[in-house]
Amino acid sequence: MSDLDIAEVAQRAGVTAATLRFYEEKGLIRSIGRRGLRRVFGDSVLERLAFISLGRAAGFSLAEIGRMFAPGGTLDIDRSLLAERADELDRTIRRLGALRDGLRHAAACPAPSHMECPTFRRILRAAESKSLERHIASPRSKI
Q: Any idea which architecture 3-67 has in CATH?
């Protein structure tokens, strides 16, 4: 196991030294000592940082990610939490896909004015009634 100083970890992980200090403060990573004034980490910290990065990309908070580490440092991931997050991502993908399709339609619509386009008017009515989010989230949405 090779020791890495904070600058090397920051460079290899693509984060700032301040981020590493913050993660250490939150208990997500742990230094193994110091070399002069610099924190030193074991090379296993890179895998832990990769997991934190993956968790953040999936939308987990740092607190949620922290709870995925067992006391010994191994992973203890709640699979039902992962399934819930996957379901949330599916809903977000559907919503964003419908918004994308609506924007593409509005951009290419042959109507002389958007206000003359029946599809655009349906989008406006849905937004006006504040049901746009529910309408877009519906798997049968035709926006």
A: Orthogonal Bundle (1.10)
